[in-house]
Amino acid sequence: MLDKLTGMQKVTYYSLLTLVAVAIIFPVYFMFIISLKTPRDIYRAPSLLPINATLANYQELLVEDNFLINIRNSLFVAGSSTAVALLFSSMAAYSLVRLRYLYRDWIGRLILFTYLTPSALLFIPLSVIIQRLQLGNTLHGLIFVYLTFAAPLSTWLLIGYFKSIPEELDEQAMVDGATRIQAFYRITLPLAGPGLVAVSVFTFTAAWNELLFALIFITSPNLQTVPVAISRLITGDVFRWGLIMAGAMLAALPVMILYYLAQRFVVQGLAAGAVKG
Amino acid sequence: MSQNVLPRMEARPASRIGLRQSESILGYLLVAPVVFSILMLIVYPFVFAIYISFTDRVVGSEGNFIGLQNYFNLIQKPDFQASITNSVVMVSGIQIIKLVLGLGLAALLNQAIRFRQFWRGLILIPWAMPAFVAFITWKLLYAPQGGAFNFMLIGLGLVDTHVDFLSTRELAMPSVIVASVWRGFPFWVVSFLAAMQSIPKELYEAAALDGASGWRRFLNVTLPGIRHVVIVVILISTIWTTNSFEAVWLLTGGGPSNATMTFPVLAYYGLQSLRIGEAAAVSVAILPVVAVLAVIAAVRLQKEN
What is the pTM of this model? Predict the structure, then answer.
């Protein structure tokens, strides 16, 4: 498999990879340089180089616009959804992996099946239900709705992680006098640390990136999350691309840094078919 | 001896049953919050959606039961017909390109490539970006004024006048497909690469001893070895691509004149126009396809976990 490459192969393979790298990097690069340009430079003197670079777009977004409020809303919603999902799903995953009871396998199947249920099938009935619960146009309602993807996703992932921890460790602790609950939070949970990190990253980014539910359920500008605020910027007549790209950069940076830091765990999770796509 | 052992033997099953019982109560208690959330937020809305689709419900009024009327109306509507054809064309286009790209790049990275971690990290970038950021950026790349593609095409003298990628009937669909592939292919490459790396080296050595060429080894060793992962990735990704909202909504909004309309966007417009019953029918109409894919994917994933 890992035969040494011939000279010809080397040239072909590395040129192909370079081509792919350019295709990947160019849009990101363009997004970055446009975020540094004034409308005048974007339209009158288009260029692929960051000529007359300025931070004016970022300044306008953060100082004059509501963008800091949007970031705060997004942090609150994504953070709370992650915390709730992590609490619920670690309990459920432990129960499904370690405890034996009637209908356990059916509950496992239900969770897997709902993990595969797309939001596009749910947003219409959910809009009626959320309205009825008086949770329309509130961040709490959004957190609640985000459990539709966060709970099955994180439970399904944690089941995999918990299974990889030897059951004997729990049993040993219980022989030594620990209760089931103690075995759960003193033995299994700490050992599943990397899994909990990966699950948090997935859940947080999924909630941070979510557009459709936020678009439907939030109507007040001061409650809008980052994706909604940015997508509202492109619906006008004149696209203020510099401002839009500055917002896109600010929205993408936190999750890309998270992915980079957690890359080891994320790739494992990806390989397990963990992420929607 | 046996006299001594017997009482203990009898006592143990009794305490075990007690333990079992408290274990199952604890089991139900721990799983309850997730099950409750799922019943409340997924199962109930799911059933509710099917019910709503049989009514003429609008915002502010419960509406009446009208049977299949919404579905009959939909079949005759040009935007619904377009959304079916477009979804088929778009999803198969995107998935076929991602499959070829994914297999090709994974096989490439599975060679004796230097800095494999670096290349893999680089390929993950589009995937690590939020989808809405990726598609807004592609909207800018395609833009007639200020967009990178037009700047390059005109600069190189390939076209005389601005090309409006997203508002031209023939170009809108391919443009949406290209942007969706860019955002989605990393998942395929990384999954396939991980599967390829778990194939035992001995299989390749045996194939090499039999004199199999590189291409033969790919067909006879690599492909069978990653078959399961390929099928799961195709299934899951097809479910999500079919139901993807962001790409079309941000790039074209379904236009020009329904050329890129897909059913999630159509259902969204239905909700916007407050005709809830009809909007629900749009998403329920696609349900059988999604359900079949989900069942097959679930069975395969369950075997694996």
Answer: 0.89
